[in-house]
Structures are given as structure tokens and as C-alpha cells.
Amino acid sequence: MHMNLLNLLTPVPQLDIRRLFNREQEGEQQGGRRAAMSKDLRGMSFDEAQRTLAPQTAPVVEPMPAEPTVEAPEQQGPSDVAPMDQHKFDHERNWGFCGIATMAMAMQHHGIDASTGSRAELNQLARGMYIRGKGTAGAGMARNMRRAGIDGAQFTTNGATSGIVEQLQAGGVVPMGITNIDGVVEQLPQASRNYPGLKVGDRQVRDYAAGHWVLVVGFEGKPDAPTAFLVNDPDTGARLRLTPEQLEKSAEANKSGSGIWMVGYGQQKQESDARP
After folding, report:
1. Are 274 and 135 in contact (CB under 8 A)?
2. What is the pTM of this model?
3. CA dihedral for 146, 229, 199, 202, sign (positive or negative)
4. Hey, what CATH class is 78-270 in?
């Protein structure tokens, strides 16, 4: 046989004998593993086989960047529902309709029609909750709110400021029974019927021996340490700002901040007590 002189003159790339040997060994090992695996797979279910065939080494997972720390909001935006003036209702008992006004504002906050423009509409709202000579029954108010579509509304005589904050944070408002009020006028959409000289910035102080209903619509500060509460007061037709201490005093809360008469969403039902 004649050898090709050109082939002899062409340089041959250097071979890595060790790499070739290792590849050969790896091939033999893999072939042995495949044979053993095919025998082991007999009788396995599909899922079991998939787990057996899965890579034995865990895939490399890049660490996820740390989530940025988000602090609780320092202020809960108040409801945009305007304060109502109960003394402007076209009804001979408007002086005792603070509960009706409070419920109507709560319903309007949730987008529920609660017209108060006529005597007939006021009587419809008052049905089942206003008791002549006694005032508005908290349990009756909660029942009417549920019927109107505010699920879980229940009256309690053991509410707390922490529960008020939670309800506000959840997007609700809080009907609350009080025996006195001490706050600064924050908003006055129209001149007050009962207090014609009242203006924004004035301090409003009054006792309600027979009780009174207001609507808590917002708070300021951090949820675990509010600095103020915003309250729609039907007696003045104004929005008042109260400190937490003033709010608890107005509701005659105990030292722990509980014992407040209020309508909460989903709270345990209490006895039916009445306040005008």
C-alpha cells in the first residue's frame, strides 16, 4: 500500500489520551446504570419512574432579592361621606334622629341608597330601630344595616378603639354611641342648624345625658398608635377631630379602651340597648 505523502506532512492535533480514557469509562458506567435502571423501572408507576429518572443533584437556584420592608401607613384616609345635620331633616322628631343620620351616612359610605329628603324616607330608615321615648336601638341599627347589604353588622357594648381602627383600615366606618363630645371642627359643609355660629377650627363641647350617635370615619397616625379620630357628628352637621383620649372619654370606655357602644362588622351580637 502506498502512503499519502500529504497526510504525513499534515500536523495532527495532539490527543488527550486521559480524556478519551475517562470518556470511555464514563460511557461504560452510564451504560451499566441504564441497564440497572431499566431493570429497576419495571413495575413502577409513571410518577414513580419520573422521580427515579429525576436528576440526583439539586438545580442551582439563584437567591431571590430580599423584599423591601414596607411600614404600616401612618394615616388612614377618612371616608368622603359628608356629615349630615339631623336638625335639617323634614321630620318633627329630627331632634332624636342622630341614629338615623349615623346609619344613613354609614350606608352612603358603602354606596347604598339612604335618602333622607322626605318624611316618608326618614320613617322607612327609622323602622325597626327608632323607639319613641328611648331613641335608637343599636341592635336595630345593625339589623337594618345587614338588610341593606352591610354583611356582618352587629351591635356591641364592648367595642374597643383597636377594633375601630381595624374596621376603618378594612374600608368601613364605625357607628358609635357616646355620652359627651369634645373635639375641634375639621369640616363644616353647611351652616349648622343647631349651632349657627359654629365654624371650622372651633372647639365643640357638649354632654348628652341621654346618649348620642356619631360616625367615626377615619383616623390619623399609625394604626397601633393613632393620634386622632375623625367623627361625623349629626348634632352639629360637622366633622370633628378628637384625640384618642377624647374619643374614649366620649364613649365612656374603660381604662383598657374597651366598653364602647358601636356597630362592628362581624362582631358578636349583644343585647339591644337604646340611645337617641
Report:
1. yes
2. 0.71
3. positive
4. alpha beta
